[in-house]
Amino acid sequence: MKTSYIFRRTLGLGLVAGSMLAVTSCNDDLDRVPTYDLNTESVYKDAEGYQRVAAKVYSGFAVTGGQGPDAATGDILGIDQGTSDYVRSLWSAQELTTDEAVIQWGDPGVQDWHNMNWTSSGVLIRGLYSRILYEVTLCNGFLAQATDANLSSRGITGADLTNIQRLRAEVRFLRALAYYHALDLFGNPPFATENDEIGGTTPPRQTTRTELFTYIESELKAIDADLAAPGQNLYGRADKAAAWTLLAKLYLNAKVYTGTERNADCATYAKRVIDSGVYSLTPQYKNLFRTDNNTSKEIIFPIVYDGKRTQTYGGTTFLTHAAVSGTANSFWNPARYGIDGGWGGIRTTPRLYQQFPDTAADARAKFVTGGQSLEVTSQTTFTDGYVPIKFKNISSTGAPGSDLVFVDTDFPMFRLADVYLMYAEAALRGGGDQALALTYVNRVRARAFNNAPAGNITSGQLTLDFILNERSRELYWEATRRTDLIRYERFTTGDYLWAWKGGVAGGRAVSDDRRLFPLPAADLSVNPNLTQNPGY
């Protein structure tokens, strides 16, 4: 069982998820304040109160409410708690819409992801949107109370003041991360900061994609001086390297977001992370996705899970259980995954398996193929499609997690291999040193091929197409694929097809409007400031 989880080691509070301030979303938008059991003055009366709310802000990426996973309601109303988990919602939007994942279940909206026929009234679209904006609202609420003036009026000084000022920078990072996901997924969401009235009569205004890009960029640069140096914060908390990595991601996709390339800036910030000297590749790829991955020197920013203290049916609990058959047989033994049983949900299309020219030599190419067919004749038949072996609830030494239902494994939101590949792509797009890019790519591949020479590529093999494929091989099921395919103009077009793309067995092109998700119809009905994205 891990000893460093966000509520104890990170914030030093001795808290569990259920002992947080009880917070409930009153609306899907930014115009409502979360409802607290205690009033503002009693919550923020001292440094411990600020730490508790900051813990709630961090936990918003991991759990769905303060009353446990089986409570009647969570933070977001009108949607199943497990489905509304931040990581699960993000993962579904980023992976189920692509060649890397299909899902068996027929719950409302689930098949819409892969068929690309989602609508503005879909409950899962609303859940994704609400979870992101709820996180922004939590951040705004904390930041509104964490001004220097408020801290002074409450007599917070000395080390307590310094700690809260650092937490303030971290919460600004978390808000930037949530807004980055809103930028990437929805494009033009409603926008508010701590300077806007929360719970007032005026609904939030709508931002533009370019304006939001600039805001995120400015926020990440503004907090740099106040964040901990790379690797110097407690595990699970943001530091400078996390902000640099997010900036690199922002710049790599700048042409999609603003129409202007920023590849040199991407390379600059990626290299800052690399040159910090703090991070190194985990020697064995599989150990990045085990219960003790909190010891990895590769993970730059995780979403922290603990089977006893952050219980949710989303996150890595979902990613582990859903990739195991619901029927134990000679091909499927849930105990090998450290769980009590599978949910029989997620697999992949042939495209991912075919990305690996040598499945025997490449350590990343681990799939359950026995009892499974390569082809996905039916999305709702679990045995159609090979199943990647990625997340497990066991340690690197094979010890099971602390709970057989809820998983201990952390989700690696940012890690070094991604940074290496971002630098390489930016260099190939004219923003960096291509010789250095080759070195970085071969570091990633050396790990994958157990340092065998067969893993190395030459400068002639290092192309943009190679990088896209290598990103899939390295980062599959880590919520990057949709963004990557859009950047390469292969998400909606007929140039690259996969099984059931657009709801057709052989795949088909879909409207470019599908590169953004719609703003939920329910939000448009209550906020006249919003205009729907094209095509919806």
UniProtKB/TrEMBL annotation:
It comes from the Bacteria. Its main location: membrane. Keywords: Cell outer membrane, Membrane, Signal. InterPro entries: SusD_RagB_dom. The keyword Signal applies. The keyword Membrane applies. It is found in: Cell outer membrane. Residues 1-22 form the signal peptide. Residues 381-536 form the RagB/SusD domain. This is RagB/SusD family nutrient uptake outer membrane protein. It comes from Hymenobacter profundi.
